[in-house]
Amino acid sequence: MERMPIAIIGCGGMGRRHLTGLAELYRSSFCNVELVAVCDVNRQNAEDLADEAVQQLGRRPGVFAEVQDMVRTVPELQGAAVVTDAGTHHVVASACLEAGLHVLCEKPLALTMRGCNRIVETARRTGRILSVAENYRRDPINRLACALIQDGAIGTPQLMLEITIGGGNRLMITPWRHHKASGTVILDIGVHLADIAQYYLGDAVSAYGEARLYEPYRYKTEDGGPGGFYAKWAAQMPDVVTATGEDALFGYVHFASGAIGQAIFHFAGHGRPAQDRRVYGSKGSLVCLGDRNGQPITLCFDGGTEVSGEEILGYAPSYRLSPVAAELFVGERIWTYDFPFAVTDAKILALEYYELGACMQTNTPPEVTGEVGRRATALVYAIVESGRLGRPVTLDEVERVEVDGYQRAIDQHLGLI
After folding, report:
1. pLDDT at residue number 176
2. Rounded to whole angstroms, how far apart are CA atoms 388 and 380?
3. pLDDT grade, residue 221 (50/70/90)?
4. Residue 1 predicted with pLDDT over 90
5. Phi and psi of 77, rounded to 5°?
6. Which end of the chain has fewer CB atoms surrounding its CB within 10 Å, N or C?
7. pLDDT class of 286 with cuts at 50, 70, 90
8. Which of 177, 189, 160 is nearest to 380 (CA)?
9. How far apart (Å, rounded) are the C-alpha atoms in residues 239 and 241?
10. Mean pLDDT of 91-105
11. Could you give the count of Cα atoms lying within 13 Å of 224 in the half-sphere of its Cβ?
12. What is the pTM of this model?
């Protein structure tokens, strides 16, 4: 199988996760990309990731500190995964697109709508592929949930509840998730959940709600982050972080279909944590127990009837994983799985890289285009901006930057205005 030469730009914790995802794809029957370069302004991080690549991929990629130098030195390069900090996505992704590279950009696509618009417009102008690394929707359980809804298992969708509560005053992986100017936790995690809501129910139209900061100080723990990928940098993090960005988001969402969404993202919650996702329809409801954990879906009907085992597949006749996903997750129509988080994470990232390679080879658009990634970011900001204005805000207003009171200070900090 032909392999498209690509680079990873950004060699921190997320870069390490991406490398592990590439290794998972390398071990499959579907490897269609090859890592030929890594790039980071922190040269040591890039050198360290290149060393890890030898262990995981069997070859050491070239090491660079600047995108322009990398492109000049590796003329065969055709694509790049941008996994730098979110505040630089609009600069790095745009530079890659301008250099003629196809791009897989981590979510959020950018920190603000102006940043998102810059990347999307650059991709359109250059004719390059822009894919957003939105991983939750690639979880086979979420594929099954979407098929159940589309196949009418619960009738016409009416209401979706998305609840995530917990975190207390602990540092959420890294300090930047608590700083408004570098991307708050409500955006970093909220964009995942905004994408899932629109993956399940279609386009969101407007939202009403507010964001709050409950914990002004965050305290470092011994946690190495998801899969332990961030433990390497734990010693460099301060013991206490002064938070400047919100840690809770409460929203009421209208979808174009007429369905309603209720979102509670409370990442400063104390006591018992909560994780709940439910979709109610005219004939029944779905209960989904989170993402990347393989927990089965429960299909519920009036009278107390519940389906949560393999028989649930009978309510989703259209559900089929792609051949590469079926190989990675060991089954075309799986309804549960049992892998450690790091393994599941790698498998889903492998799917993102496979799609990038396939799109590059066939010049076809990816599932999560820049426009789709921007829409998820717009949904988060519609709720935030609504809280400032005291009225519902449409996602179109946000995307057109007609409503930007909250984002304006970030844009000024980033030099976007």
Report:
1. 84
2. 13
3. confident
4. no
5. -60, 135
6. N
7. very high
8. 189
9. 7
10. 98
11. 12
12. 0.96
Distance CA 289, CA 95 (A): 39
Token couple for 166:
């917990």
Whether residue 113 is predicted with pLDDT greater than 90 in this model: the reply is yes
CA gap 289, 311 in Å, rounded: 18
Give the list of residues 6+ apart from residue 404 with CB closer than 8 angstroms, or none: 112, 113, 114, 385, 398, 411
Give the neighbor-by-neighbor strand order of the sheet with 79-82.
Answer: 62-64, 33-39, 4-9, 79-82, 102-106, 130-133
In the chain, count H helices and then E strands.
13, 17
Tokens of 301: 């009907």
User: Per-residue pLDDT averaged across 132-151, rounded?
Assistant: 98
* Amino acid identity at 373: G
228 pLDDT higher than 90: no
Question: Can the peptide bond before residue 75 be classed as cis, meaning omega within 30 degrees of 0?
Answer: no
What are the domain boundaries of the chain? 4-136+362-367, 138-335
For the purposes of burial, counting CB atoms within 10 Å of the CB of 233, is it exposed (0-12), middle (13-18) or buried (19 or more)? Answer: middle
pLDDT at 106 over 80: yes
What is the distance between the alpha carbons of residues 223 and 3, in angstroms, rounded to a whole number?
A: 36
pLDDT of residue 184: 93
Residue 91 is encoded by which pair of tokens? 């600069």
At 33 the three-state DSSP class reads strand
Which run of H or E residues covers position 306?
strand 306-307
**183 close to 203: Cβ distance less than 8 angstroms:** no
Take residue 399 and report the two structure tokens written for it. Answer: 């995307």
Task: State what percent of residues in the chain have pLDDT above 70.
Answer: 97
Domain at 4-136+362-367: CATH code: 3.40.50.720
Options 3.30.360.10, 3.40.50.150, 2.30.40.10, 1.10.10.10; CATH for 138-335 is 3.30.360.10
Looking at residue 170, the DSSP 8-state letter turns out to be B
Answer yes or no: are the C-beta atoms of 298 and 308 closer than 8 Å.
Answer: yes
At position 206, the amino acid (one-letter code) is S
Number of residues that this document lists for the chain: 417
DSSP state for residue 297 in the 8-state scheme: P
